[in-house]
Design goal:
The chain is mainly α. Among the domains are: 90 residues, Serine Threonine Protein Phosphatase 5, Tetratricopeptide repeat; 136 residues. The protein contains 17 helices and no strands. α4 runs antiparallel to α5. The radius of gyration is 32 Å and the shape is elongated.
């Protein structure tokens, strides 16, 4: 009886009647559940339903197959089909969950990594951020090759932790990206991985800059000045590293920020809290000494603002180049205030 029903399904399929064929294939399992081809009939019903894009029917039959034949040799293949059917029926979260399971159970390493990545994308696009974080973390932990996708997984984790407000975790992944970039050979790197590493370094530099700015030059001045200088050196080094990747998108911002740090430090020195035991003459001498100390940092700031203007020759006129020019007009008006003079400077750069 099972064979008779099955071949009715075969005949209907050959005659391009998929609905009838599917009904016959399903009947094998339901009318002759103990037959040796019961599972085959249901599997063929699933395949035919998917071929004809009958996604809801395919999902129903797959679930029935998994319930009736959990240990069948085709159970893993059926699970893959379920993920595909979920995606095509726009049940993204259900598809992601199935893919996440497959990323553990499948034997093919490439399929496992692909399934895990796709699950992360589906969770992320549907704003299930906790699940997206879980899957991308699993990916970053288990798949360090190919290198570009490994870097991308960590970059997405930074974005997701930023969205969820977990700043500490975002910083942790930024550090992981920088370390991964340091130890990886140049042959594995792409323009995209360089941009990711540069952007992550830039973000760490911004966080360091905030800490630098928070240190006030108040009494006891010697101790606070030491802390300020240390914070400045760390921040400048981070910005310099971000710039070293030679990515225009980050290099101009990094260069401008270094100039800003030196300019800010120069102003901080001049505005620092004065010792309380100085008379008017001593205060005047103290002011002169401060100006002598502050001036070299203003000069450094000018140097870095001017360095940013050299990007004009590469036809880069972004906001950081423009901001550098505005600052130069304030700090060095004799050279940069007049438009005619500025035009000559730009022409020289070209």
């Amino acid at each position: 009886m099972a064979l008779s029903i099955y071949y009715q399904g075969k005949s209907a399929s050959l005659n391009n009647n998929p609905t009838e064929a599917i009904n016959h294939y399903i009947r094998v399992s339901r009318d002759a559940p103990t037959s040796s081809i019961a599972a085959t009939g249901m599997y063929d019903a699933i395949a035919l339903a998917m071929k004809n894009k009958l996604w809801d029917s395919a999902i129903q039959y797959i679930k029935e197959f998994k319930r009736l034949y959990p240990d069948h040799k085709r159970s893993l293949d059926v699970s893959k089909k379920l993920a595909v059917a979920y995606i095509n029926s726009r049940q993204d979260i259900a598809a992601a969950r199935e893919l996440e399971k497959l990323s553990v159970n499948d034997k093919d390493k490439k399929y496992k990594s692909t399934a895990l990545w796709k699950a992360g994308e589906l969770y992320e696009s549907n704003k299930d951020y906790a699940s997206a974080i879980r899957t991308y973390e699993q990916y970053a932990k288990n798949y360090r090759r190919p290198f570009p996708q490994y870097m991308e997984s960590m970059f997405r984790l930074i974005k997701l932790h930023t969205i969820t407000g977990d700043k500490a975790k975002a910083i942790l992944w930024e550090k992981n990206i920088i370390n991964a970039d340091k130890i990886s050979p140049k042959s594995l790197k792409t323009e995209r991985t360089k941009l990711i590493a540069s952007t992550s370094t830039l973000d760490l530099a911004k966080e360091s800059y905030r800490k630098f700015s928070d240190i006030k030059l108040v009494l006891p001045l010697k101790a606070n000045l030491k802390r300020k200088i240390k914070a400045m050196q760390k921040t400048v080094n981070l910005y310099a590293r971000a710039s070293s990747y030679n990515i225009a998108e980050t290099a101009t911002e990094a260069t401008y920020s270094i100039a800003e740090i030196y300019n800010e430090f120069s102003k901080n020195l001049l505005q620092s809290e004065r010792p309380k035991n100085l008379n008017s003459d001593e205060l005047e001498q103290y002011q002169i000494l401060l100006e002598d100390r502050a001036y070299p940092f203003e000069e450094k700031a000018i140097d870095f603002y001017e360095t940013n203007l050299t990007h004009v020759k590469d036809d880069i006129h972004d906001e950081w180049v423009k901001k550098s020019l505005n600052q130069l007009r304030l700090l060095f008006p004799v050279r940069y205030k007049r438009e005619a003079k500025l035009d000559r400077v730009i022409n020289v750069l070209h």
